[in-house]
């Protein structure tokens, strides 16, 4: 097997979308202890956040493919030729990826390569946010901001199956709100037209929501405090509107309601923590097979069109995952 491979690279190591290109002379990874070398079929796109040191320079964290080589060590029930999908610290925008077998899933034959590549990062993040960080309990009310994002699409469905009382979302268009309601949200609020805080308080008769998962940051922090129920949990996954809070943020609500506001990043978690999440999500695989869980795909691209794929993601027009196929 050649020691080089094709992978998506970044000209000068940084820069705009136009700096992404297909590099045909990238070193092929060698699987280490407890790792498998996976031949990539498809990979999912995700917004770029702080990259952990073990990620390497190649982008991409979720993928589907098959095992071509196993490194030394214990690999559980994984074997050469197995069709798999999984989560990595980085490196999925490539022909080959070395991944810990502890972060692989066996791909059921009923799930397509595209769907499989769309599951790992988003559904594991949603599972973590709802259960491990958000400490969800059956009967809780939940709010997912950026409702049509892939993580919130997963979160809506996870919350419904777990016994949420009411599930709310915010989104930037009526079309996205309707889409989220079709997936199981109780109600949604178009933030361009509606006061989502007032809407939630009215829908809950002043009670509020027990778990809030937020990607927005600065512009929503005060509203989150107001919409949260007493002893509510706010999970901060990103800060798309800015991370430096505006003057006048009333932390009295944080104190008086006994709120917990916790930040979280999946990629910086250690392997044992991520394996725990993998095992949690693995228990839900039958729901992907029988169609209970929907994995909407906005669009598929050839990885040769990686710039177009990223342009679509940055446009914020998508409802679901954007997938690239390695062809």
Automatic annotation (TrEMBL):
Pfam families, alphabetized: ADH_N, ADH_zinc_N
Recorded superkingdom: Eukaryota
Entries under InterPro entries matching the protein: ADH-like_C (IPR013149), ADH-like_N (IPR013154), ER (IPR020843), GroES-like_sf (IPR011032), NAD(P)-bd_dom_sf (IPR036291), Quinone_OxRdtase_PIG3 (IPR014189)
Record keywords: NADP, Oxidoreductase
Oxidoreductase found in the keyword field: yes
Record domain Enoyl reductase (ER): where: 15-324
GO MF annotations in UniProt: NADPH binding; oxidoreductase activity, acting on NAD(P)H
Transmembrane annotation, as ranges: none
PANTHER family tied to this protein: QUINONE OXIDOREDUCTASE PIG3, QUINONE OXIDOREDUCTASE PIG3-RELATED
UniProt name for this protein: P53-induced
Species for this entry: Hyphodiscus hymeniophilus
């Amino acid at each position: 097997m050649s020691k080089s491979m094709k992978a998506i690279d970044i000209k000068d190591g940084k820069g705009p979308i136009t700096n992404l290109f297909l590099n045909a002379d990238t070193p092929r990874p060698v699987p280490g202890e407890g790792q498998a070398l996976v031949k990539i079929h498809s990979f999912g796109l995700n917004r770029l956040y702080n990259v952990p040191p073990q990620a390497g320079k190649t982008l991409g964290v979720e993928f589907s493919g098959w095992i071509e080589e196993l490194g030394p060590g214990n690999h559980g029930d994984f074997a050469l030729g197995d069709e798999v999908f999984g989560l990595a610290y980085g490196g999925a925008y490539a022909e080959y990826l070395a991944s810990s077998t502890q972060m692989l899933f066996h791909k059921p034959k009923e799930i397509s390569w595209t769907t499989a590549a769309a599951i790992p990062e988003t559904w594991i993040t949603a599972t973590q946010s709802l259960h491990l960080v958000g400490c969800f309990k059956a009967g809780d009310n939940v709010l997912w901001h950026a409702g049509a994002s892939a993580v919130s699409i997963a979160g809506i469905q996870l919350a419904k199956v777990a016994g949420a009382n009411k599930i709310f979302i915010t989104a930037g268009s009526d079309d996205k709100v309707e889409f989220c309601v079709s997936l199981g949200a109780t109600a949604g609020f178009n933030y361009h037209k509606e006061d989502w805080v007032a809407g939630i308080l009215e829908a809950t008769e002043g009670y509020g929501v027990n778990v809030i998962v937020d990607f927005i940051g600065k512009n929503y922090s005060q509203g989150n405090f107001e919409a949260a129920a007493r002893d509510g949990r706010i999970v901060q996954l990103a800060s798309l509107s800015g991370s430096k809070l505006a003057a006048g943020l009333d932390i009295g609500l944080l104190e008086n309601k006994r709120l917990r506001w916790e930040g979280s990043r999946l990629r910086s978690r250690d392997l044992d923590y991520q394996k725990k999440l993998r095992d949690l999500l693995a228990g839900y695989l039958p729901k992907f097979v029988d169609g209970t869980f929907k994995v909407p795909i906005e669009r598929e691209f050839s990885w040769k069109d990686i710039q177009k794929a990223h342009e679509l993601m940055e446009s914020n027009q998508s409802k679901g995952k954007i997938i690239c196929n390695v062809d």
